[in-house]
Design a protein that fits this description.
The complex is a heterodimer of chains A (158) and B (181). Chain A has 158 residues and is an alpha/beta fold. Chain A has three helices and six strands, in the order αβααβββββ. The chains are: A alpha/beta (158), B mainly beta (181).
């Protein structure tokens, strides 16, 4: 092999390695950027792990907190009537419950799904799914039992 | 007409004379601001109980109910900083010391001085802050902003992210209360 060809092949190899290295570097940076900036998961298309009606979940809060604790971070579908709707400029929070009791399920609506709740009114029946974040027995404040969910969306019957 | 007027006046007097006022959908927002990163977490399921006759004021919230715009922040907040499985709740128990000067029956903006015990990450500290109570149509809204030091509540910030996370966090409270029936 003559010398010129040998140098040419080495130069090509170094060039290819450089291009590959830069490409790999860019991919890594992009991957890390995506990982760091990833939005929280959208649960709306996921099947709920468990479904409760409002009386069922309240009975669980009163009598079976051990199994309720295991539902934390799970996708739960809650069926009941709207007790209160709180809307501000960029968020909606819906309370599911009975107007005769202080107990309720509080659903912080996922900002990506707020439009689904625009037409909702107090006392409308509704099914909402989201991550269960916790529960409180009477809150220690005499405010009834509370179950909390976030990243909520309307349950789509699957 | 007379019946409507009597019902309206009765309703007003119940609202105005209500001793305890509450919400379960109050808002607490915390902001960590550094030149490199702005982190905002919002919790809109804060329970608050205010006794207008004694000035007693309580807040309680589930740490996991804070919402962030990035999944990684959500995970780090619950797993590394707040350890939400170990310390699921944060709370405040205190008093509005100048409650007697706040007229819940008259619309307006009143200054409030608050003292009490703030519990975060399993650590309880005495705090003193000021805020506002805005009364509109007989409904009060509690508004306050104060700063807490992460170190005071044993929240360690790893060296790798110390430039991205502020050592002190601004906490904003906004709770619109209803009469406790």
């Amino acid at each position: 092999m003559n010398k010129k060809l040998k140098y040419f092949l080495i130069a090509c190899l170094v060039g290819l390695c450089t291009v590959f290295g830069v490409w790999l570097g860019l991919c890594t940076v992009f991957g890390v950027w995506q990982y760091v900036h990833k939005a929280p998961p959208d649960n709306s298309d996921k099947k709920p792990d468990v479904t409760f009606t409002f009386p069922e979940i309240m009975e669980k809060v009163s009598k079976d907190t051990a199994s309720l604790s295991q539902l934390k971070d799970k996708i739960v579908c809650m069926k009941g009537c709207i007790k209160k709707i709180s809307v501000d400029s960029n968020s909606t929070t819906i309370e599911i419950g009975d107007t005769n009791s202080l107990s309720c399920v509080i659903c912080q609506i996922d900002s990506r799904h707020q439009d689904e709740f625009k037409s909702c009114k107090v006392l409308d029946p509704i099914a909402i799914q989201g991550f269960m974040t916790g529960y409180a027995i009477d809150n220690g404040l005499g405010l009834g039992n509370t179950v909390e969910m976030n990243f909520c969306s309307q349950f789509k019957n699957k | 007409m007379k019946n409507i007027l009597i019902s309206f006046l009765t309703l007003c007097s119940i609202q105005a004379g209500a001793q305890k006022m509450m919400t379960k959908t109050g808002t607490i927002e915390f902001v960590s601001k550094t030149p490199l990163e702005l982190i905002i977490g919002t919790n809109k399921s804060v329970a608050c109980l205010y006794d207008t006759k004694t000035g007693s004021l309580d807040f309680i919230l589930q740490n996991k109910s804070f919402v962030f715009d990035k999944q990684l922040l959500q995970e780090h907040f619950n797993e590394n900083y707040m350890e939400s499985d170990k310390f699921p709740k944060s709370s405040f128990k205190g008093t509005i010391t100048n409650y007697a000067s706040i007229n819940m029956t008259k619309d307006g903006e009143y200054n409030a001085e608050v003292i009490g015990k703030l519990t975060i990450h399993g650590i309880t500290k005495d705090i003193k802050s000021t805020g506002k109570i805005v009364v509109k149509n007989g409904k009060p809204t509690l508004i306050s902003t104060f700063t807490v030091l992460c170190a005071d509540y044993n929240i360690a910030i790893p060296g790798a992210v110390k430039d991205k996370i502020s050592k002190d966090v601004k906490i904003s409270v906004n709770c619109s209360l209803d009469a406790l029936k």
